Amino acid sequence: MTLPGLDIADGAALLDGVRRRLAESGAEPTPARVAQALREQGRVLGDAEVLGAARQLRSELVGTGPLEPLLADPDVTDVLVSAPDRVWVDRGGGLELTSVTFPDAAAVRRLAQRLAAVAGRRLDDARPWADARLPDGTRLHAVLPPVAVGCTCLALRVVRPRAFTLEELVEAGTVPPGGDRILRALLTARLSFLVSGGTGSGKTTLLSALLGLVGAGERIVLAEDSAELRPDHPHVVRLETRPANQEGAGLVTLEDLVRQALRMRPDRLVVGEVRGPEVVHLLAALNTGHEGGCCTVHANAAGDVPARLEALATAAGLDRAALHSQLSAALSVVVHLVRGRSGRRRIAEVHVLERDATGLVHTVPALRWGERAFARERGWVRLRQLLGAADEFEGA
Known about the structure:
There is one protein chain. The chain has 3 domains: about 10-60; about 65-155, Beta-Lactamase, CATH 3.30.450.370; about 165-385, P-loop containing nucleotide triphosphate hydrolases (Rossmann fold, 3-Layer(aba) Sandwich). The longest helix is centred in the first third of the chain and has 18 residues, at about 10-25. About 35% of the residues lie in helices and about 20% in strands. The chain has about 400 residues and is an alpha/beta fold. The termini are far apart. The radius of gyration is 25 Å and the shape is elongated. It contains 13 helices and 15 strands. The strands form 2 sheets. A 9-stranded mixed sheet has the order 9-8-10-11-7-12-13-14-15, sandwiched between helices. Strands 3-2-1-6-5-4 form a 6-stranded antiparallel sheet, with helices on one face. A hairpin with a 5-residue loop joins strand 12 (about 335-340) and strand 13.
């Protein structure tokens, strides 16, 4: 940062001094306080210089600094900083390089550390990464050098204040025409299902929309690492994990949340993303009368989901045979999303789960993406039976 009328070195040194004084006092960088901090350093500047310093410091110390306009754009879903002059955004059509820049790598580091502190996370040389949720719901991930080579890497994922409706997802092309009827029937039949896909494929967006269709008389209990699901529903209980403090105490895991959720009388138990030992408790819950539960999981294809869950359960101490036995009774349907090179997100396939003669669970394709409607696959008859709609979808 520099100030009008001063060379780069003097301006940067002056701002550093003001920054330290404001940080020590916890004061907001108003023009009056900036002027006072400047006077305390023995420097007298004109009104233009004081106002310029106040604007620059406020941009750095309040909100998300130079990233604020990007995050305010309703079309932006992700903001990524990989270098002071490399700030990228995703507006749904892939990554775009923006004109936003930081003065230097130190400015990126300061912003990352301040945002982590706002979220109650430690981010320093001893703990060089942080994964947290900001007060407005924005997901923060930051990695400091030297783990991140050259410059602090900062990733911000924007959470929409309102969930998409299923109709909006049809209009956007995520759900093919007529596919919303099948998804509504999936919820009405109280089938337990799983939404799979890669990073950024729209799993959370689709699940939020589907949960908004659950009957108003049902109680939804959400267990998430980071509270991202925003279903438009009148009765939602939200549980979120918590990291350990600096003394190593206070850790709350997703496994803990799933156990607690079972004691909260859920009509629908929802795990934001299964990624560890909580899968064991989720499958056990879905086998003990908790119908209509759901979750998301990272997977390359619907057919890979059993293997993915097997890996997670094995790490949690559940052997292969036990996992497949639980899985066959717990889950009925996998809805898989993909994101194309153009950035378009869509439901690529819907599979049903079946157990073969060896006792292992595998998925069977029931529906495949089509521009005009879902195309039926060999598992369609089984899916239609599960939906309890033998004749309803003859024209779907």
